[in-house]
Specification:
This protein is about 50% helix and about 15% strand. With about 325 residues, the protein is α/β, with parallel strands linked by helices. The relative contact order is 0.13.
């Protein structure tokens, strides 16, 4: 199965909060249960992206496994190209790498605050494209430089590159330079529709207008809908605290309230203080019927696929099985 031959528009997001030793068995389960794709997230400082993707690919036979996303500034593009080419050659037509900037607060922890944030992503993506296509690069950019850099083992097949973008300028750039776009968790249907419009504007300046959109969602399903919704509150609060002032919150309309709650309650109190409507709108959680309806709403808003990020993470395999038998069958 190639990355263009997905059976279901619903995939699973592995990695980050998932314990590393559970990646391979959960990946096998996803393939067995009929999910259409696998994504591996790389949040600092949880599970590593390249190693996690490789483990998931080795544990499966057909599913596309996509890396969404690694930061453009934590590794030089030449090193990313070397890693991605290695994975692509070991698992032909099943691997799709993703590039973004990363959460600014996490980059600041490493002293990697970036003046030219979008330029860094653009230079990373465009140089990756050329290196993976077998070119030799000698050039000096605003962020990255290359001196006779060429991959010894470039892939023989085309490797699509996606970006993870949140704000207007980044989404438009993704439409211009990438093969696909990953939308962050907390993407409401209204935000997905708006983001797709921005991507289309960017694609007007590109020869490659076939930009595939995937929305990541914080997900939990249970016959007891209240239990499922309670399971995602901490995760929603975690990401709201990490990225409170973005187009995700501006388009949804809760930016000012998030910032005020963080000021008054702190990050630890945000999960308790947030209104129930945020849980309803910014995650997919509830009974199987509720979850199926919310997935359909995200697809209708413009996503080509939806990546389910399973919570609670230590119960991921049970949730994956339940989602496959009780949610996928309703779509």
């Amino acid at each position: 199965m190639t990355s263009n031959e997905r059976v279901s528009p619903v995939g699973l997001v592995l990695g980050s909060h998932m314990p590393p030793e559970r990646i391979a068995p959960t990946a096998r389960l996803a393939e067995e249960m009929g999910f259409g794709e696998l994504w591996f997230s790389e949040d600092c400082f949880f599970s590593g992206g390249a190693s996690g993707v490789t483990a998931a690919l080795a544990a499966t036979e057909r599913l596309p496994v996509e890396l969404g996303i690694v930061s453009a500034v934590t590794r030089h593009p030449a090193i990313n190209a070397m890693e991605f080419a290695t994975i692509a050659r070991m698992f032909p037509n099943r691997f799709v790498p993703g590039i973004g900037l990363g959460v600014p607060a996490w980059l600041d922890q490493m002293g990697l605050g970036q003046r030219y944030a979008l330029t860094a992503v653009r230079e990373c993506v465009t140089s990756l494209r050329r290196l993976l296509d077998g070119e030799e690069l000698t050039e000096t950019g605003k962020v990255f430089s290359f001196d006779h850099v060429k991959l010894t083992h470039a892939p023989s097949q085309y490797v699509p590159i996606v970006t993870g973008m949140v704000n207007k300028k980044g989404l438009r750039m993704s439409g211009e330079v990438a093969d696909g776009t990953v939308l962050s968790v907390l993407a409401s249907p209204a935000y997905i529709s708006w983001a797709c419009d921005q991507i289309k504007i960017g694609a007007e300046n590109s020869a490659n207008a076939a930009n595939r959109v995937t929305a990541f969602v914080i997900f939990s399903v249970d016959s007891d809908g209240k239990k499922a919704k309670a399971a995602v509150r901490d995760a929603i609060a975690f990401y709201l605290a990490a990225i409170p002032d973005t187009d995700l919150t501006r388009v949804y309309g809760n930016r000012d309230e998030v910032i005020e709650l963080l000021r008054s309650e702190g990050a630890d109190g945000l999960a308790r203080a947030m209104p129930d409507s945020w849980v309803e709108d910014l995650a997919i959680a509830g009974t199987p019927d509720e979850c199926a309806e919310k997935i359909q709403a995200q697809l209708k808003a413009g996503s080509h696929s939806v990546g389910l990020w399973l919570f609670p993470a230590d119960d991921g395999e049970r949730i994956a099985r339940y989602a496959a038998t009780e949610v996928l069958t309703r779509l």
